[in-house]
């Protein structure tokens, strides 16, 4: 952390500094740089008056305060005298209040924060120029060694040099307004109001002994339906107070240049240009619901100052600053985006059981997790677990789950993973060891890779199949092993057809690249190659082809049943044949199987119905879908809900919600659990269980997703490649020894975590000199 700054250091030859913007980030950077070198000439340009500020209270984390304490004890002491501290969160919904403790907040008035920083800058000799618009950044850059652009979300500097910074600004769907109440709430309060116009929410927290910040937020359509789009600020303030009379105990709200806003997420491909650098909201924004705006700006100032002191020249310092801060900011923005989306989709959650709703809200950003919340407030978390149905002493992931006639002993699924290790479609010893090891490793359900329904339906020559009886016998060897050697474990088969993505090399020889020789003809919904100019052009399936492929799925399903599989999944994702019918980017048909989403659904549903008819009725059948194509004009979250609902109405027992891999020009938003919001959306909109996938990497993530009601099962791929016994180790690490994760008798001696040697933590990167 760049929180502890060495006073005595070589530093760079940065003597003249101009700061554009007198917010917390700009002022704090100015004070730190001046403190470290009193001979520096530092000028802060602020177009407003010293006491002219928007908003009310700001929240700072203990981590940020620790950095301030090490960097400038005087500022830290001044802040400490002003802070209001509390550690509880109240969630008020449908007349019930659920309280969770142990959260630790510190807040103070924004105006008072600025006054403290003004006093510190003035005392150090920083030239503060209020009511003075800054000259253009290019002009300042010509006569200063460094220009710090702290000019906020509407940064003129960023706009003027957009070609260098590469900004991206995304405006979101909710409307919100910053207001205040003249009394102190006794906790951080989230209150939900279900009005005739739609769902509204209040975010409130104290920032002084007699004052609280109150933010009212709602979807734009709710805002318009309530007539708030035509209200003046005074009327908006009055009406918001009436919507949340209980929270305010009938008392009024007031504004401070308050108006309705739509949040804007700001990103930049670069944060510096020559000797000009962006910090705070000029460089990046994070939704106010995670309280990180001021925190990020202050931490930017700390990091920038530290890098200027450490590095031999300014270019190196600015490069180091961005390298240090960008991963932290990206992580915060991902958390903020998850929180923002949660509040945008709030209406989908209001019918959850009350404690689950509260837990879901608290864990919305994925920064607070089940394990973390259990440490903060064990009694609250235990009540949520009880409502969920956890047996005593059982983590959520080890509660059983029933799909039709199959009861899974836990909620962990080994996700389908193509191994490309078959010969002529036959699963061999590799597959026995691979799938057998993971079933022995404790997962409730182990899935095969995509098993192809015909030789022409393979992705690569190394893919497995079920197009003949000999292959079925080979699969029977594997299912018998699982059922005999891992009693209680289930094994499922995923049936699919490669469509236009077939006849390619093994993954490690060139993913999605056509074979050098021995290619077979491809078929698809439309004659569109996967990679134009590279991939083979598939033939569009005609009536006879549609019937033939459907029959291949039916025959393979019969063989899968005789092979002893407990569950069958129909692969309608990742751009393979059935997925190709669903996406408008890959289905350009003009017959009954194209056009509208209903038309594009027609053939996958016909295949599903035909397979369901021959698949044993007591055994469950699931469907994997790509809930978004991550590409303009493709399948989106709304389409995914419609697709999931259609399969559920046709008898799907669960929807396995993946994303992407449909078109090569996709732009996924990678990150921890990045695909789970799509599963969440379907689960809380459609009456069907869901399997969540997508960079779920820890047992804590699994417990959190389940307990919040965002998924019923969690499928993990790479963690099971890294550790075949991932589920058993998750049980051991949580101290769980119950029926949800029984160790195979020969492995019993390994059921405790082995001891490890002592390790000492790293020393601070910088220390106060």
UniProtKB/TrEMBL annotation:
- Which InterPro entries would you find in this protein's record? Aldolase_TIM (IPR013785), FAD-bd (IPR002938), FAD/NAD-bd_sf (IPR036188), OxRdtase_FMN_N (IPR001155), YqjM-like (IPR044152)
* A Pfam family recorded for this sequence: Oxidored_FMN
Report domain NADH:flavin oxidoreductase/NADH oxidase N-terminal positions: 397-731
Q: Which Gene3D superfamilies match?
A: 3.30.9.20, Aldolase class I (3.20.20.70), FAD/NAD(P)-binding domain (3.50.50.60)
Which residues lie within the region annotated Disordered? 742-769
What residues does the FAD-binding domain cover? Answer: 17-333
* Family annotation (PANTHER family): BLR3436 PROTEIN, NADPH DEHYDROGENASE C23G7.10C-RELATED
Query: Could you tell me what this protein is called?
Result: Bifunctional salicylyl-CoA 5-hydroxylase/oxidoreductase
The scientific name of the source species is Streptomyces pakalii
